[in-house]
Specification:
This protein has a single domain, classed as Amino acid/polyamine transporter I. It contains 17 helices and two strands. The chain has helices spanning about 10-20, 30-40, 45-60, 65-85, 95-100, 105-140, 165-180, 180-215, 235-245, 265-295, 305-315, 320-350, 370-385, 390-420, 435-450, 450-475, 475-485, and strands spanning about 150-155, 155-160. A hairpin with a 2-residue loop joins strand 1 and strand 2. It is globular, with a radius of gyration of 23 Å.
């Protein structure tokens, strides 16, 4: 069979799939569910951990400016995602968008790459959740058994592993929720999101009231932009830019809304709303928390796992400290749920197209969810959370997300040129300026990551290409359809 590596999935076929519901995923999500899914994915480790660490190490109180810059960068990508999500309301997110615009090989690369964002991201958060739970239980006088650990040499490198059984168990529990049903998962997320947003707002209110009533409080905002230490990225304006690169990853998750497009009741209208509104709400909350936190506590004291808890303790409100700790635990739980939801839906779409094995698109006869995909992904992520060090998981999540942003933004630009007359319920403004800016911002942040992370990305993509060329290209429905169309038609007989 002659193969076209950049064969595109016909847009009319995609739109037919979006309309077809018989035997498919259950359309159960309204606009509130989609907004809370986005907020649930975004608000988590970023606001509860990264804010303080980035302020302490890179930007000082000017971490507020870093959040503004990161929010603008994510806004460019968010506008591109919103156009695609309304135009192609199919489960699969950037994978599906790339299939329609850039071709099958690029679609495979982005689908395989999304595992880094969603699966590795969920594992990263699971490790953080485990740490917060242990700290909370310790504060109330209960300690969990210590994690087993082992050390061994691998290719001349000493490897030390902590077997985080708590991270493993929480991933498996959330996987069970996902198997039961998308509506039940969305309702769970909605409740948790309302809880943690209320707690974040409580922190903002208590911190603001405390600062207003304590005018004598030392001005921890001075200097607002600490002078550079002489090393690039260590405070000053270069530190603000480096801080923006770090806190950018606190925004990871808004694109997870697009993975649930096929389960939205009115995707053309509600998908852009879910993406842009969740991103806007979280940006405002991040800026407020960062500003108040660095005003309450000297920035050089915030390089801790729980900086928001440190900040609320400064106010002397013990009950509020207890609630913030609970909010962090709940917030990280909802992030894991949305990440696992996104990963299983990407697998579902790739399997439906023939690029992955058929089991990944099997739908439970009762719950109407891709249950085998959810179980396999959940077990894989649970192992990652239990075995892989946090810093490796975090950076792999980051590089996967940034590559997805680059390809989606390029896809919007390509689609405007190749299909200019399509009806677009939401249109990205100022094309090609916005897509180009999204590509430049995301590409610069990829270059700024550690070289080891870039090497791991290449190795991961090579593994994916091996799977594609050994299985995916031979079972691709698009390739099979193209092969049938290319077959020569029989010559007309003399009788004709």
């Amino acid at each position: 069979m002659s193969l076209k590596l950049f064969a595109k999935k016909d847009l009319s076929l995609l739109l037919q799939e979006a309309e077809g519901e018989h035997g498919g995923l259950r359309r159960a999500l309204g606009p509130l569910n989609l907004v809370t899914l986005g907020i649930g994915a975004i608000i988590g480790a970023g606001i509860f951990v990264i804010t303080g660490q980035a302020a302490a190490q890179f930007a000082g109180p000017a971490i507020v400016i870093s959040f503004v810059l990161a929010g603008i960068a994510c806004g460019f990508a968010g506008l591109c995602y919103a156009e695609f999500a309304s135009l192609i309301p199919i489960a699969g997110s950037a994978y599906t968008y790339s299939y329609a615009t850039l071709g099958e090989l690029i679609a495979w690369i982005i689908g395989w790459d999304l595992i880094l964002e969603y699966a590795f991201g969920a594992a990263t958060v699971a490790v953080g959740w485990s740490g917060h739970l242990r700290a909370f239980l310790h504060d109330i006088g209960t300690d969990l058994p210590k994690m087993p650990h082992s050390s061994f040499a691998l290719l001349g490198v000493n490897v030390h592993l902590n077997y985080d059984y708590v991270g493993f168990l929480v991933i498996m529990a959330i996987t069970t929720i996902l198997v039961i049903g998308i509506k039940e998962s969305a309702n769970f997320t909605t409740v948790i999101v309302i809880l943690k947003v209320a707690i974040v707002c409580m922190f903002i209110g208590i911190a603001g009231a405390f600062l207003a009533s304590h005018a004598w409080q030392p001005n921890h905002w001075y200097p607002f932009i600490p002078p550079n230490t002489g090393e690039r990225g260590q405070f000053g304006w270069s530190g603000i830019l480096r801080g923006a690169g770090v806190v950018f990853f606190a925004y990871i998750g808004f694109d997870a809304v697009s993975t649930a497009a096929q389960e939205a009741r009115n995707p053309k209208k509600d998908m852009p709303l879910g993406i842009l509104l969740s991103l806007s709400i979280c940006t405002v909350l991040y800026i407020l928390v960062a500003g108040l936190l660095t005003r309450l506590v000297p920035y050089n004291q915030l390089n801790v796992p729980d900086p928001v808890v440190v900040g609320i303790r400064t106010t002397g409100q013990r009950w509020a400290t207890f609630l913030v700790e609970l909010g962090a635990i709940a917030g990280l739980a909802s992030v894991m749920l949305v990440m696992l939801l996104g990963q299983s839906r990407v697998f579902f779409s790739m399997s439906h197209d023939g690029l992955l094995w058929p089991w990944a698109s099997k739908i439970h006869p009762r719950f109407r969810t891709p249950y085998i995909s959810s179980i396999v992904v959940g077990f894989f992520v649970a192992l990652l959370a239990m075995l892989i060090p946090l810093n490796i998981l975090d950076e792999m999540t980051s590089v996967g997300t940034l590559l997805a942003f680059v390809l989606v933004s390029a896809g919007v630009w390509v689609m405007r040129r190749t299909h200019p007359h399509l009806e677009r319920p939401f249109k990205t403004p100022l094309v090609p300026v916005v897509p180009i800016l999204a590509i430049l911002f995301s590409g610069a942040l990829i270059v700024g990551l550690a070289w080891e992370t870039q090497v791991r990305l290449v190795v991961w993509l090579v593994i994916g290409l091996i799977i594609y060329f050994s299985y995916g290209r031979k079972h691709s429905k698009v390739q099979m359809m193209n092969a049938v169309e290319r077959q020569p038609k029989p010559a007309p007989s003399m009788a004709d």
